[in-house]
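dude i think i finally got it to work??
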Amino acid sequence: MQATKGDHLVVHGRNVGNVDRRGEVIDVRGQDGQPPYVVRWEPDGHEGLVFPGPDCEVEITEQPAAKKKSKK
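look at this
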């Protein structure tokens, strides 16, 4: 699992009736995007250090394309 700042971590509910939890990765503490991550959870803004398990996935946030400079 790899993440960068701005990606979202989703923890899927393990039991019927449990909802998924979603939060924004605000810091990556491991090397090369590896866990642990500091996550700001929705909707209350609680922040915590997360060591994701098998019920987690990373939603990659699209990075804006770099603007190309044109020669005139």
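The radius of gyration is 15 Å.
im so relieved honestly
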